[in-house]
Amino acid sequence: MADNFIFTAIIVFLVVFLPYLILQMVLNPASLTGSSPDGRNLPPVFKMIWKILVYSADAMTPLVELLSPQLQGKLLNTLKVASIRMSLQHLLAASVFLSAFLTVVSVLLFLCFTTNGGVLAAVAVIAAVIGLMYPFTTIQDLAQKRQLQIMRSLPFAIDLIGSAIRSGVDFIAAIRYYISSENEKNPLAVEFGVMLRQLELGKTRSEAVEDMASRIQTEAFSAFAGAVSHSFEAGTSIIDTMKIQAAEMRRERFNIAERKAAKAASSMIFPIAVFIMPAMVLIIAAPIVIQVFKSGLGDVMK
Fold first, then answer.
1. Full residue range of the structural domain in which residue 129 is found
2. Most buried by CB count within 10 Å: which residue of 68, 219, 250, 258?
3. In terms of pLDDT, which residue wins out, 50 or 256?
4. Does the residue 279 lie in any domain?
């Protein structure tokens, strides 16, 4: 049974997917390495198979409907934080395709070493699970990295925007100044760019800042957004608010660094006790033992 399934999967891959990928590489290599046709920000693996995802997305709708509303919301939220413009249908299509691809490739590789059905079935299951999970772990990892990059850039951004406002420019001009001073791929600059477009389209400053907080979704930025929004609504000095928030974020980053340093010190106790201390005892004791045997005490002990 397992052998028949594996054989069928291999045939499907060789007949359907492999010719498609070869044609894409020959006729349109840019489609496998560039961004999607509508300029979506996609991870490299998703870029390579984007057209496959587009063509198979509709077929994934029944699978999406099987997911609970909570899980759908969590996945959409992760895509939003990672700034990946992709539907759940695309995400599930990537999961199914990569699962099939890794399964077939893994089985073909292991066929070079064994024809045991049990071994091949185990390899197929492991490869299928890895392929299924990879898209989800990828977007989660990208979301966390993006949040970390934003929080590292935020204190400097607040200082720069605050300095621009103190020099006499308004809030929107200060945002433009920060965006122009940063790399266009900086995630925080990208988010401020989105906020700027929302302001230009008529959103209030409070609404735009709160929308930005909903996209970034970190406690520190939510606190900053809440303070800035309150300052706008209450008419208090935005400069003082931003100065306080920048100081708070620096203090929090320092506290986090201290906690990590303390944790690192405690985590070193076990490897020191298990690996380093025995080696040090051996280095110290070995010459003494050798000297004892050389002095003739070894013969007495016999």
1. 2-145
2. 250
3. 50
4. no
Q: CA nearest 18: which of 101, 106, 140?
A: 101
Distance CA 253, CA 20 (A): 49
Beta carbons within 8 Å of 248's beta carbon, 6+ residues apart:
223
Q: What whole-number distance in Å separates Cα of residue 130 and Cα of residue 134?
A: 6
Residue 129 shares a structural domain with residue 78 = yes
Give the C-alpha separation, 79 to 112, whole Å: 39
- 52 and 133 assigned to the same domain: yes
Q: What is the pLDDT of residues 90-142, one digit of tens each?
A: 888 888 888 888 888 888 888 888 778 788 888 888 988 998 899 899 899 99
Report yes or no on 19 lying in a domain: yes
Are both 89 and 32 inside the same structural domain?
Answer: yes
Indicate if 19 and 135 belong to the same structural domain: yes
- Tens digit of each residue's pLDDT (9 = 90 or more) over 206-256: 888 889 988 888 888 888 888 888 888 887 777 777 777 777 777 776 666
Q: How many CA atoms lie within 13 A of 153 on its CB side?
A: 22
In a domain, 41, yes or no: yes
